[in-house]
Amino acid sequence: MHQPNAEPRRSIYYDYQVFDAWLPSQHPTSQQAPVVIAGAGPIGLVTALALAQQGVRCVVLEAERQVSEGSRAIGFPRRSMEILQQVGVAQRVTDNGLPWRFGNSIYRGQRVFRMENPHDTDDRFFPLINLQQQFLEQYLVEACAEQPLVELRWGNKLLSFTQDGQGATLQVDTAEGPYTLRTDWLVAADGARSAVRGLMDLKLEGASYEGRFVIADIRVDLPLPTERLAFFDPDWNPGNTILMHREPHGIWRLDYQLPPGETPEDALRPESLKARIDAQLAMIGHAGVPWEMDWSSVYSARALTLPDYVHGRVLFVGDAAHLLPIFGVRGANTGFQDAQALAWRLALVARGVAPATLLRTYSTERVGAAREIIDEAGKSTRFMAPPTRGFRLLRDAVLSLSLSQPFVGPLYHWRTSRPHEYAASPLNAVDDDNTAFAAGLGHGAPPRNVRLGEDDHLLDHLDHRFTLLWATNTTIPADVLTVLNDAREKGLPLQVIALGASQPVPGADQALPDADGHLRERHGLSAGGAYLLRPDQHVCARWTALDGRRLRAALLNACGLTSGA
Ligand SMILES: Cc1cc2nc3c(=O)[nH]c(=O)nc-3n(C[C@H](O)[C@H](O)[C@H](O)COP(=O)(O)OP(=O)(O)OC[C@H]3O[C@@H](n4cnc5c(N)ncnc54)[C@H](O)[C@@H]3O)c2cc1C
Predict the structure, then answer these.
(1) Between these two residues, 28 and 70, which has the higher pLDDT value?
(2) Rounded to an integer, what distance in angstroms lies between the CA atom of residue 168 and that of residue 183?
């Protein structure tokens, strides 16, 4: 019998709610679901909401009865906010988070590099926003409660499963003992220690790095702006790196590297934490300032991924699929892109609109993204925590040169999480005009937001459907209309937005005037040109002129209905 902790977790700024455990005796007819998601972390919850938007019912199994312990992921970049906007929680994050865009690298008391994340008037969201993961999970849980197609079962732990050609049969443990649940698809969103991954004996590939880091969240009043601070080789922790981030509710995160050989137990002893936090506060000129501990933990940097996220009827997302260094806010943020990339494909497959082979493209695209991140993250991890004498020499040379030579500043390799471009995806159209465009977004690119008015942006107009963005103000021609209607009849969610049209356009779902032509210019669109965006908003086709035949080909290809995909 599974009895998760019913005591609220301790926090000085967050009130944990303990949810009622879901008990099988109270739900005698709930033994089947089209999709079961194991794990109600941020990625399982986003997957559930995205599936529900696509009309697919899912059950989410969560072993615990409350949201996660400690602040964990605290930095959410713009692309994550755009994904969270799609599932309806971005506004709450904006209302409660701390936006920021500058990062400072400090060496020997001198700022040697100031990173500026680009931000222009077309963006709805800041480059980054800080908010503790518990709040984000809470907003997602509340959004799930509003969504009749999502059933969240607290206190339900996936114990084991078997799969066959049609689906999977799960054994789920509860406070009343185990029950059996049948599903067509099992999504493994059960985190870094994924039980599903373990049960299938799947191995992650990549690298684990030597360095260990302490994360400590303290409440302290520091008169500093919301900017990232990175201190290299400070006097009190020679050779190592310390990060500081401001969080909402007067909390600061300190993140420091441990000397080699120190155990996590030693590092987390109260006197050890106190000595180091005091030393860091003193170093930044705030010796003796009162502070209070909220949460501390030790982690090591790992850069690992499964080589395949699709195993028959089992699909992996988030930390269950990959473990990425948190420098550059990659953990949860990479997972949001997994969730968004999986949900539309799984929905099309679950509703019988697309073949199961479409899911293979989820794996190739997202494993490709993880590998790219692992490559980049490896560079920043090696800079933060040099693994060998050679890397340390190189890092120290960059640090020392940076005191007098500004040109080495950018060598502080620190790329924050950014969306992957699926430039080589088999879902990209084969006979469109991609290469004929002189500007705009190429195949596989994530969307580019554009301000349309005071509180109106292009991405506000995209939803869970395929979107045809068409620079036209005349009636949609009959051949294109036929293709659109056929696709919709077959169950493909699809909308048409006419750009540069001040009046409604017959056949289009929306018309955006784009009076100054800025939206079309940013997309490199002339009159008659068009983009096809997938439900995850990535570009899969673009044309300088569109006709029904080429639109049909692109839609079929994007749904894995041609041999190319
Ligand atoms: C100490 C720490 C600090 C971090 N800091 C950052 C950061 O600063 N920035 C960043 O981007 N990321 C950070 N991360 C990583 C980030 O928290 C994860 O990437 C993110 O939580 C992944 O989300 P997920 O939904 O995939 O997994 P999780 O959040 O781990 O959620 C998995 C869920 O599955 C549940 N579960 C597990 N097994 C079962 C089962 N058998 N049956 C049912 N449910 C199950 C768990 O209870 C959990 O709720 C940090 C992580 C840790 C541990």
Answers:
(1) 70
(2) 5
